[in-house]
Amino acid sequence: MLVRDYLPTANKRLVVLSMEATIRDAARELAQPGIDLIVVADPRGKLAGVVTDSDVVTWVAEHPNVVADSSVQTLMSTKTTTCKPSQTLTEVAEVAQKKGLKHLPIVDDAGKPLGVIYVREALMSLLHEAEINEQWLKQYLSGTSDGRG
Questions:
Q1: How far is CA 98 from CA 6, 51, 102, in A?
Q2: Cβ atoms of 83 and 37 closer than 8 Å
Q3: For labelling, which of 26, 90, 122, 124 has a CA lying 20 to 30 Å from the CA of 3?
Q4: 123 or 15: whose pLDDT is higher?
Q5: Where are the chain's structural domains?
């Protein structure tokens, strides 16, 4: 299964803020159900960084006297691991596991965000696919499948 197969779901949870957005804007978006990562885009629409709910919480805890109207640039992560639509979910899961990531932005070849893939859901899709393949293989080997798929 490829990341592109997951794009309709991943696109629904894509939230993109400009670099001029505030931490308050980011917090407002992260308070929405199902949104755990925000993509920050540069003026050309390319991914410049990401902000997670834990980034906001950590920043507020470390800067209690600073207003939330500071730029989102002050807390965004700029060393971002992304994935492309042509990658397999297995590749994405392996990268995420190595780096300890829960979600990755999906970008096109120009670096523009297309969606956000949640690694847990990708792993669930892979597990489901493996279960279907195992079931088909058992049927085929036992002779209960007619071989037409």
A1: 21, 20, 11
A2: no
A3: 26
A4: 15
A5: 3-142
- Looking at this protein, which amino acid is placed at residue 10? A
Strands 113-118 and 103-107: what pairing?
antiparallel
pLDDT value for 34 = 87
Question: What would the mean pLDDT of 6-22 be, rounded to a whole number?
Answer: 94
Cα 143 from Cα 66, distance rounded (Å): 69
What Rg do the C-alpha atoms of the chain give, in angstroms? 19
Q: Does CATH number 3.10.580.10 belong to domain 3-142?
A: yes
pLDDT tens profile 128-147 = 666 666 777 777 778 776 55
Using the 8-state DSSP alphabet, how is residue 89 labeled? H
Q: Return the bridge partners of 5, or none.
A: none
Mean pLDDT, residues 20-36 taken together: 93
What is the C-alpha to C-alpha distance for residues 93 and 63, in angstroms, rounded to an integer? Answer: 34
For residue 123, pLDDT over 90 is answered with no
Q: Is 96 exposed, middle or buried (0-12, 13-18, 19+ CB in 10 A)?
A: buried
Helix (H) or strand (E) holding 127, with range, is helix 119-142
Size of the chain in residues = 149
